[in-house]
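Is this the right way to post structure tokens for a design question? Let me know if I should format differently. Anyway, here goes:
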């Protein structure tokens, strides 16, 4: 279904009944990322709400970098919860969706029952060491408007394929990013929220209040872009109960690479 928030139409999957679970995808994805977890959560008695975040999937792709700033993304998510009549939900986020989930749990704690970040820890701990800065080289490239688009598209999307390690859904990603305005909209997540000063280590990310709800941090040992240290360090910013799970043999796209293990984790933690 489509939900309009602030003049932007957002596509939202809404399935099942029972305690609500909000699933937030990242770059360059859509609600299709969760196609293995949605049935498992519905079968476990949950109502699952999985939006295509603005710029992705079937949702609108507004023009301009500022349209993708985190405060606007947060307003989208809160608007979706309001529109579907959900006061408080369990939240699961991956990649940019995990970053957004940390902000949601910090700034709107009354809306988050439990939180499960996949791959990405708290922004205040993300660029924790030189290893993480090396792994994040692509973020600097993404800040260059026009240059990044050309580099990623050339030679049949060769750079994108190589950087992403040819994930399960690579052809879907390329098809969706090939739509008019889609690649720039996706890259605007980086341009709106990652100042070069933060990437260079001469400025800190914005401070956030601690997360007070229970948190399950999940990381996979085959992740090419997110190191384990930044997820582990996130515990320092959680005052509620903290759990950590390390998935072996999966790449960055945990919901696709380890679908059954992740589904079991979520059903257990959100019970």
């Amino acid at each position: 279904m489509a939900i309009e928030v602030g003049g932007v139409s957002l596509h939202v999957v809404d399935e099942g009944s029972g305690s609500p679970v909000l699933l937030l995808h990242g770059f360059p994805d859509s609600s299709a990322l969760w196609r293995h977890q949605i049935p498992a959560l519905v079968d476990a008695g949950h109502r699952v709400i999985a939006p295509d975040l603005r710029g992705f999937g079937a949702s609108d792709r507004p023009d301009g970098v500022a349209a993708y700033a985190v405060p606007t993304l947060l307003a989208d998510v809160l608007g979706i919860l309001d529109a579907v009549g959900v006061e408080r939900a369990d939240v699961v986020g991956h990649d940019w969706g995990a970053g957004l989930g940390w902000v949601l749990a910090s700034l709107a704690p009354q809306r988050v029952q439990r939180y499960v970040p996949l791959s990405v820890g708290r922004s205040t701990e993300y660029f924790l060491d030189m290893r993480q800065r090396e792994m994040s080289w692509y973020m600097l490239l993404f800040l260059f408007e026009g240059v990044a688009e050309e580099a990623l598209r050339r030679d049949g999307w060769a750079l994108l394929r190589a950087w992403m390690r040819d994930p399960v859904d690579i052809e879907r990603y390329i098809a969706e990013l090939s739509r008019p305005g889609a690649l720039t909209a996706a890259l605007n997540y980086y341009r709106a929220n990652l100042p070069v000063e933060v990437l260079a280590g001469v400025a800190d990310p914005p401070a956030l209040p601690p997360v007070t709800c229970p948190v399950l941090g999940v990381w996979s040992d085959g992740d090419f872009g997110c190191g384990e240290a930044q997820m582990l360090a996130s515990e320092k910013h959680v005052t509620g109960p903290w759990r950590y799970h390390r998935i072996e043999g999966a790449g960055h796209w945990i919901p696709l690479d380890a679908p059954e293990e992740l589904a079991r984790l979520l059903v257990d933690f959100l019970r």
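Format looks fine. Someone answered above. Worth noting: The radius of gyration is 17 Å. Strands lie at 2-5, 8-16, 19-24, 46-51, 89-94, 112-118, 215-220, 242-247.
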